[in-house]
Amino acid sequence: MINRILFLPEKPNAGMQLLLAFLFPVFTFTALGIDSVFFAGRYFDGRQITNFISIVYFLIFFFASDSYLRKLMFIMVFLSYLGEIIFCKCLEMYHYRNEAIPLYVPFGHAIVYASGYVFAHTKWAIRQERKLKVFFPILFILLFLFVGLFLNDIFSLIFGICFFLLLKRKRWENLYFFIALCVVFIELVGTFFQCWTWEPEIFGIIPTVNPPLGAVFVYAGGDVLLVKIVELLERQKRILTC
């Protein structure tokens, strides 16, 4: 029933993809809860369990997806790990509860992207495309203004402007807003469980909160780069097969 109502009929494994996308909040809360400071202090360090279930969830999502989404997810794992090195280790914008970047993180980024991708390609989202293109910008403008004016999150105000400039170039595709919602959720859960913590001042001078809403721009920029990489690989593949 969900498949008939929400997804385009010709999409393979649509029901499974939709189920996995809807289970994304449950998976996130469970996986990050096991890796939390609370869990480690009260029971044991559950990071290896989180690593395992994240990879398993990724593989299930991966094999339930069509060939294009599989390419996006596969490349996202490596692209996000590179992003972690840049933003976490080099720029020190945030830190994980342990020194190393957790193994589950790059797989988690791919799951975030895939979940937003699936939601953005449901029949409902496609039918409501025009309305959502009005609703989403208003929602995020209000959110950015709220954290900036009332929480002194200057970082999110700056990166919020960058976020909207990027989306303007992408013709306000709802895909990036759906992914942004997934990003906001996982950032709230991860920082709540203290799996990672953002610095109170980015680059030592820009005040922010934990987590900053401006993080969505970092993800959005990575998403745009991801699509470009896949398009480049597809173009090279066509050239080689000609």
TrEMBL record:
Keywords: Membrane, Transmembrane, Transmembrane helix. It comes from the Bacteria. The keyword tRNA processing does not apply. The chain crosses the membrane at residues 20-41, 48-65, 71-91, 103-122, 134-167, 174-193, 213-230. This is Lycopene cyclase domain-containing protein. It comes from Flavobacterium plantiphilum. The lineage of its organism: Bacteria, Pseudomonadati, Bacteroidota, Flavobacteriia, Flavobacteriales.
